[in-house]
Amino acid sequence: MRLPSTIAARPILLLGFVLALGGCGFQPLYGSAGNGVAGPAEAGLAQVSVGLIPERSGQLLREALQERFERGGGGVAARYDLSIAYAVSGDALAIQPDSSASRVRLLAAATWWLTAQDPLRRTLTSGTARAMDAYNLINTQLFASDLDNEAVQRRLADAVAAQITLQLASWFDKQAGL
To answer: Which residues contact 66 (CB under 8 A, 6 or more apart)?
Structure first.
């Protein structure tokens, strides 16, 4: 059996793409410096202390951020504080004839500030992150709706944490290049 030429050519194209990226100086944002030492983004993120965020949704966001920042392991002294204002709001969708909703859309928004742990407490950078998700309401299954709500809250926290982590990693990488 003979493979179509496009399927057989895929590994060769992929190998060529990887080699071309390496030749042009491409380096992953979270990559190490080459000798096992953490790169500027990873080292900077490890030095960030995430402040408390109110409400259960804030706890989920803080937990997701801490997991991302402590990839290389703990034990690094904090040099930066990350403060976050986080809110999750909901909209009822898919209104039924009896005026009940059968779907809920949740919108998460975070505004964050990175401050130095120096006597001036200067703000080094700031940004925003947003995410949206939804779940179905099942009128006869309130427990299932609660579980769906919790799952959506976790997904929103993960999405917002990923955005904040990427923004901070990019900032740390730029600072290393200055």
So the answer is: 50
